[in-house]
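Protocol step 4 of 6: structure prediction from sequence.
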Amino acid sequence: MKILFVLIQPLCVAWLLLSLWIVFACWRRRWRDVAVPAAAWLILTLLTCTPMASLLISDLEGRHVPVQIRDLPAADVIVCLGGGAEPSRSEPSGMHLKTSGDRLTTALTLLAQKKAPLLLLGGGGYQDKGEIVSEADQVIHFMRTLVEDEGSIMSLGICADTHDEAAKVAALLHERAWKRVLLVTSAYHMPRAAGAFRKAGIAFNAVPCNYLSSVNRVGDFHWLHLPHPEAFSVFRTWFHEVLGTWLYRSKGWM
């Protein structure tokens, strides 16, 4: 049933039809008709039938060693970069966790285990009824229901990007004489985030989480499988980080 369910998915149906067309065209020796479809089939196969996307993003995820919370030193503040959640009008909790929601659960675990007395939340902005509202401000209302001390969580307000988050944290460190930060973000995003925070002069311990690569997951690793649409999202995330890193370096932000 699982294989049948995969086979009837639109992506798999399109891949199978394309495969059949290429076989038919080769059998009829219509070589000119094969070139473009074969190139499309090859790209689709490499991206969705092999672990290529996972291997690409695992290179980013592997640049910082995975950590255990118990082994981390105490710090002055935990910084959780945005992107883990968004406000919702329908969820019972009023909050929708996105694919990078592990950032929030990791940061809350650090706070619960008293690795630092304060958690700073970053994030961008959302337009609601013509007004731009802070992602962190909205998420903070939900997170404060999970901790005893409401004052242990603060918002960085609306941040344009990771560079902006680093600049705001650097200003707070200077203002409050903080020395050490626990930086929480997705493992694939940590190389760019770490570069931005170092450039801002912030001393930190990296706490990578939210590993997307199948290489870093529990379970069997398969070199070949039927097309899986999740690969598109993983590849897009990897490509976004590659372009983001190039942009940050070109602007001198890392």
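Step 5 (inspection) to follow. Strands lie at 77-80, 85-87, 95-97, 119-121, 125-128, 131-134, 153-155, 181-186, 204-209.
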